[in-house]
């Protein structure tokens, strides 16, 4: 039935018949009636297709015959018209009859000798235009040049019987002499797919056949049109119920597919099914099963029993339309293991915030906000429509875009950028020019005349000589602080994960050394950044971090930020060195020891009892004893430790993309503003101003709002998938996919 429905769907699509989305109201039918109805419709449609195909083939053949008659007739008529000058040419020249009899042209011989046995014959037909040249070459070689090939374009496209598409064809006439040549030519015609048609030499007969063929074509056109109308009506009647029938068959198939998963208990004569269900749904499932027992009038009630299993359960997170998109972003990396910490909870805030750090401009943020609000306000209408891939993706992530827009406005206010233009929103600038003309602002700099700007970057930094060094320093240090904070959050989540599962080894020999190693180096760097900001020190942090490794006991000099800094650095360096073997060695050896203690002597339990096979039970001592492989565990721990140590450096450096993309976005926005808008505004012409404004608007929309937002989105995605989630997230689980009739409409068979 599913195959028949697919066949109907294909036929409806091919015919271009519109099937109604809302099926017509018809009485309910059971599956047996539907099967009979589908078989009847299929038989009727196949019969109509066969008849239509036969008629169409006949029509195509007659159309080709008509074209051959008109074109080949013209070729033959022109060859007859050339007979008189040929005769005169032969009479004017003196030829030796015996010597030149075989050297005359075949066409001229045929005209002279008429319909005698040694006369010229011809074959006429039609061939694909693309094959005409190769066809002529093959004929020439096969007859060794003893033929005359004439061709003319058919003039109108002809339906190809195999592909059903309209193709260009060429009418040909081949003049030859002899039976052998005829046999060769006909075989070549067959191999090239050329259709041959008989054309009489007499013009009267040609006209008579042409009239007969034209009359038959006209009759066939009427018959074909009537057949197509009848077939379309039949397809419309099927199409009106196709969706309802498809859902009905899909539901039945899904039921049987699920029943096939059940086991048949021969002793109790019942079906036993094992499956997963969420804990909160147990009472609902029991109620539904109880109702099913009553409705089916079953003598035996359905038993719902919880069972123990060694299999890992599937993962199911209850999401709504707001959190679903964030969960999908995490699931694209990997589905969480059962009872594993879910990164999507934190990504709801951290993902759009890191995006905004790179995209910070409150003018661009407002544009994104308007787009997100448009999608949210038209939510009901858009959810019921079929959207293209790009719109569907944007609509699915509408709440992600909303948060990204809000955080972009917030970060834009901190950066004080509105399409790269600073504004005095929160009060006056803390700086002023040395003189009224402000001519030395870019050379001598500005003077601080009042308290710092209350919120965000002071507008006076814009265009000053130290703008770039200041903003670079600010954004770079800010990126490191955010990176260290998020990586610490990831390691903290690994602690809560281990604590929830009661895994003391992971806490002692993974969480603690990881926290020590990361914060001894990069946590210390973050601390130095904060101290430098608070104290206004001019110390070089690059120098401090490099010589912390190269010369730990050396004098810091002017790079000393606080008392006891050198001693603290030596301590932190020693802790970082100790943390590496702490991560690497204890855990595998402790696991080996615990394994030996747990199963010491257990392998002798089954000696002397031949009746019991220890391998028959999945949880038997021998089966579990064989599971532990020390070398494998040690190599895995070594890889994990090396990856963390190297990753701590590379991941911290990776967070510098926040600074790089923020700087790139700001500079690109500045270039568009100054080189397009301001430049155009400097002209007096209104047309130049309008052109400048239009180009600026398009550059902002397509480059800054679309390409830059996509770039920032992908970089934020990378920071979450690699730098944040690899600290605690395994992502090797599988999704809970409950049986659902509601989802069948969108699923493939």
Question: Please, could you describe this protein's structure?
Answer:
The protein has 749 residues and is mainly α. The chain has a domain at 477-601 and 629-729. Helix content is 62%, strand content 5%. The chain is built from 24 helices and 10 strands. The protein has helices spanning 2-15, 31-81, 83-92, 97-100, 106-113, 132-142, 179-191, 203-259, 282-295, 324-333, 344-359, 362-377, 379-383, 389-396, 398-415, 467-500, 504-535, 541-550, 565-584, 586-599, 621-627, 630-654, 657-681, 686-724; strands spanning 121-128, 148-153, 158-159, 166-167, 169-176, 195-196, 263-265, 270-272, 431-432, 447-448. It has a 4-stranded antiparallel β-sheet with strand order 2-5-1-6, with helices on both faces. Strands 3-4 form a two-stranded antiparallel ribbon. A hairpin with a 4-residue loop joins strand 7 (263-265) and strand 8. The longest helix is centred in the first third of the chain and has 57 residues, at 203-259. The protein is extended. The model is unreliable at 83-118 and 603-625 (pLDDT under 50).
Helix content: 55-70%
Strand order of the largest sheet: 2-5-1-6
Number of strands: 10
Shape: extended
Count of alpha/pi helices: 24
Q: What is the oligomeric state here?
A: single chain
Q: What share of the residues does DSSP label as strand, in percent?
A: 5-15%
* Distance between the ends: 12 Å
What Rg do the Cα atoms give?
43 Å
Describe the largest sheet.
Answer: 4 strands, antiparallel
Mean pLDDT, to the nearest integer, reads: 84
Structural class: mainly alpha
Low-confidence stretches: 83-118, 603-625
